Every structure is written in structure tokens, then in C-alpha cells.
Amino acid sequence: MKARTEFLFYVSVGVGMALATSSFTVVSGLFQILTSPWVLQLAVLLAGVFCAVIALSIAELASMFPSAPGVRTYLKAAFGPRFSLVLVYLYLIFTVLMAGVEGYMFALVFKAAFPSVPPTLTALVLMGGVIAINGVGLELPRDLQMATTYASVLLLLGASAYGFIVAPAPLGTVVTLSEGVSQLPQLPAAVGMAIFLYMGFEWAAPVGIKPKAYERKIPISLPVCVAVLSAIYILFVLALPLHVDRATVAGSSVPHVLYFEAMFGRAGTYVALVLSFGAVVSTFNAGIMGGSRLVFMLAREGLLPAWCGATSAKTGAPIGGVLSLGGVACVSALVVSHYELQLVLALISATIMCVIYAAFMAAALSLRKSRPQARRSYRTPVFPWLQWAVALVLPCLGLGTLFSVPEQGLRPVFWMLGCLVTALVSTEWSLRFVAVKEQRGSSALAP
Amino acid sequence: MWNTNATTTGLSEVLQDFQARFNDNPRAKKLVTGWDRSVLLDASNTGNKFVLAVQDHALREVRKVADFDEDAENLVHLQGDESVLTEIFSGRYNPATALVDGAISIFSSDRDKVKLEALAMILWRLG
User: Fold this and answer.
1) In which order are the strands placed within the sheet that holds B49-55?
2) Does A168 touch chain B (CB under 8 A)?
3) Which domains are seen in chain A, by residue range?
4) Residues A419, A90: contact at Cβ < 8 Å?
5) Which of A65, A212, A313 sits opposite B31 (nearest CB)?
6) pLDDT truncated to tens, each residue of chain A (447 aa)?
7) Contacts of A414 by beta carbon, 8 Å cutoff, 6+ apart
8) Total number of domains in chain B
9) CATH number for the domain including B30?
10) Bridge partners for B51 per DSSP
11) Which residues of B touch A139 (CB under 8 A)?
């Protein structure tokens, strides 16, 4: 792969992971809590600034541990096995929740194009397809992955720009400064929610093809991913209310379908479907693949039962991880579709990732003290005090996100507590599982 | 647990032993069907480099090289201290754990990483 193509590949991985169908559900959530487009844009922009700072810390960690699975390696190195395992389980819970939401959101877009097909069926067929693809060890070719991602980026940027050109009312009538001032108190919670729009950019960190990639290409690609996503979402949230009524946007889980229909009529539905399919290909597939490798690694470390680490005799694919994670993701999709939990789970996912991103930043700072001489081909230029500040603010933003949509009441809080308890119990169970195995091993070796 | 009977000689000898073990294992041979790769072992602390050539269901060649084209097609690049690589290829260190520990880096596609981990499982745990 040539140098320039290699850089574009890294950017495509990060942008492709973040650009999900469920991102538009969160755009809808943002319209529920904010009616002022400029405050909404400010939230997206500030979330982007936070993520850019996070990206530079992750780049430093990636240069210390090239190609390593970040959520386990960085946090284990900085905080030890127990705390890192809690966050790994939270990350796996996030993966499962997002798989469910993403599957159901794609199903809703599919239903818009083909109304007779029940969303639950579409979601399950999609899940089954992804599980089968990963189970047999098929991998999306890099060129196709790049083409899919950049086509989606260009489509969204182009459609937003076109929306400004053909807008029925001038932009000034939508963006009024005075209206937004009263909404500034909601800004922190909206920023936490908007972080969801960037989640996944960090997936570019472990995919370096060559050691030298960790000197410049990966560190630069991470903030570039954030910048590209900022441009996409800022333009989109500005163009959206020009063509679709704000209340309608707030009431829809798939507002991009409404936008494309307003722009291109019935053909717009199919454009939205193609866009969502591209998002599913890049996000959903990679998520299940990455998550299943994490399950595989935990099983190999002895933290999960051996069957979770089972691999295909023919391809080496981590079948145990794919089936266990895919199975739970199917249940997640069914729960989401039955109870319409997409926004609640998206809020929880944003909260989980705020905590994990804060942990990444704290890890980078902690490792500078505990391993000052360790190899670092890249160092974040952000001042340490600013890194600490962002690391402390992020969990607060995540917490605020749980309360950001008053209509949801305390449901997001209860769900978040459930996730936390699950992660803590799983961690304790895993550590005891290892201890028992080691005890049995010692007994077997005893004379 | 991992095999603890492996020899503790240098990386070169360990790789010769690994080649024999690999080519004697039918499950390993099945796993590399259609997976023709050059696996570059890059000892970052000593500068030693070895290439394992996997071709036609077998580990055809193990050779020490002075340098290697990192842009070569079908290359899987493993980097780590020589002692860590020796531990891995003698079956005393699970490569998946080594990756999690940050003791090695693997530069390849995800599927190639998965294949390497599966190979290690077969050769040292289930073989």
C-alpha cells in the first residue's frame, strides 16, 4: 500500500467506524433537547474538540503499544488488570448495545424503502449475515472499505451542501442568536451526547500496517478522523432543519431518511438506504469482528471459558467470540426493537465511551510518570493540565448525558447502573475463574 | 497451560524446531491452506530479522535476513524483543497475551492476526 493510500486507509477506518446509522438517531436526540441550530452546532463542535484532544492522547498510547488492542492494553498497563477488565467489559457491553441499536436502525431505514418487511426480521437477517461472514473468516478488502467510507462521506457532505443551495428559506431565518442563549445550560449534556457522533475514531489506532505508521500517519490520522466527522455533522445538522421541521426531526429515529426524502423524493429513501448499508458494512461488521477478537483474547488469558476462545479449524476465525458476542447482539436487537430503546441505549453508549475516553487520557498521563523511558514515537502536544481537565470533565459530561432527555426520565440511569453492575460482576467472576483454574493447575502438579 | 518443555536456546534454533513442529501438524497445515505469507520476525532490541515463508500448506523456509522490504505483498510483521519472540515460538508465551501485554506488535490485517493466534493455539495448546 502506497504512503498516501495508507494514510487514507487509516482515516477511513476511524471515520467508517464512527459514521453509523445510529449516529443519526443521536442527531435526532440532540434536536430533542436543543432547538437552536447554533447551540446544536456548538455542541457538535465542542464534542469534536474534546475528541481531538482525546485522539492525540490515544495516538501517544498507540505509539507506545503499536497494534495492541487499546482498551485492554493501555488500561492494563496504566491501571492494572482489575480496573482495566471492568472497562473492557463495559466496552463489550457498549459493543453489544450498539450492535443492537445499529441493527434496528438499519432495519427502520430498510422499512422506509420496503414497508412490508418487518424491522425485527431485517435486523435478525443482518445480524445473522454478519455472524456468518465473521464466522467463516471473510474480511472486507481494504480498497472496498475505503471506497465505501469515502463514498458515504462525500454523499453526506454533498447532500448537506446541496441542501444549502436549494434551501426554501435563507440560513439566517433558521439560525437566530437570541433563541439559543437560553439553551446554553443544556450545552454540557448535549456535548456528552454529541461525543457519540465521534465514537469509533479510535479504531484507527491499532490497524497500523507498518511500524513507521506509528510515528506520523496514525497520530495524524486520528485527529483528522475527528475533523472529517466534525465537518460532516456540523454541515448536516445545519442543513437538516432547512428542509425538515425540527419537531419532525426530533420525533424520528432515522432523520437522515427524512432529509434525503425531502431533497430527492422517493429516490432519497434509497439513497438513505445505500448510505445506511455503507455504515453497517463499515461499523457493524468491524465492531463484531473487533469485539469477538477481544472476547478471544480474554479467553486466551483465561478470563473467560475456553469455548469463548474457540477458533475455526479451517480459517482460524474466532468462532467462539463471534457466536457469543453475535448471539448477545441479536438479543440486544430484539430488545431494542421491542421496547424502542434506541435513544436510551445510545445515551448509555455515549456515557460509557466518555468514561473510557477519560480513562485513555488518564492512562497516557499515568504512563508518562510510571514508564518515562518507554518507547514513544509520538507525544501529544496538549498540556498535561489540559489533558487532566478533559479527563475529569468527560465523565461529568457522560453523567449529564444520562439526564439530557427529560422524556426518558430515569430510564437511562437505571440502564447505566445495570451495565456497571454487569461489568463489575463479570470482572469479579473472571478473576475468580482464573484463580480457580490456577489452583486446580497447582493441585494437579502437586506430588 | 503452555508447553513448558520447549528448548531454551536462541531464536534461530527455536524457529527450526517450530518449523518441524508446524510441518508435522496436519491441523496447522489445514489452517494455512490458501494462506501464503511471509512472516517477518523483527527483534527490535538486537536488530535480528527472520523470515518464515508459509507456502502451499507448509512452512517452507526459515531464514535469517539482513533486511526486508516492509512493503512486500502478503507480509505479516511481528516486532518485539528477541527474548519475547523466542518465548512465543517455543510455546511459553501466548501470542494473544503478548499482544495484550504490549510485548509484541503485529503489523498485518486483522485476519492475519487471528490466523497467527489460531496457529499458536493449535501448535502449542491443542496440537
Assistant:
1) B58-65, B49-55, B37-43, B75-80, B104-107
2) no
3) 3-435 (1.20.1740.10)
4) yes
5) A313
6) 677 789 999 999 999 999 999 999 999 999 998 888 888 999 999 999 999 999 999 999 999 999 998 899 999 999 999 999 999 999 999 999 998 999 999 999 999 999 999 999 999 998 898 888 888 777 777 888 889 899 999 999 999 999 999 988 776 666 666 677 788 888 998 999 999 999 999 999 999 989 999 999 999 999 999 999 999 999 999 999 999 998 999 999 999 999 999 999 999 999 999 999 988 877 777 777 788 888 988 888 888 998 998 888 788 888 999 999 889 999 999 999 899 898 899 999 999 999 999 999 999 999 999 999 998 999 999 999 999 999 999 999 999 999 988 888 899 999 999 999 999 999 999 999 888 877 877 665 555
7) none
8) 1
9) 3.30.1050.10
10) B40, B63
11) 109-111
Q: Cell numbers of A194, please? A: 454529541
Q: Do B110 and A289 make contact, defined as CB atoms within 8 angstroms?
A: yes
Nearest residue to A396 (alpha-carbon basis) of A90, A192, A185, A94: A192
Q: Does A66 touch chain B (CB under 8 A)?
A: yes
A 240-279 residues inside an 8 A Cβ radius of B: none
Whether B6 is in a domain gets the answer no
Encoded amino acid at A196, one letter: F
Cell numbers given for B100: 495484550
What is the DSSP track for B25-68?
A: -HHHHHHTTT--EEEEEEETTT--EEEEEEETTEEEEEEEES--
For residue A117, the 8-state DSSP code is S
Please list every residue in chain A whose beta carbon sits closer than 8 Å to the beta carbon of residue B100: 68-69, 72-73, 76, 297, 301
Q: Which residues of A393-404 are buried (b: 16+ CB within 10 A; e: fewer)?
A: bbbebbbbbbeb
Q: Give dist(CA A100, CA A63) in Å, integer.
A: 33
Domain holding B120, by residue range, is: 11-126
SS3 A311: coil
Which position has the grid cell 535469517? B64
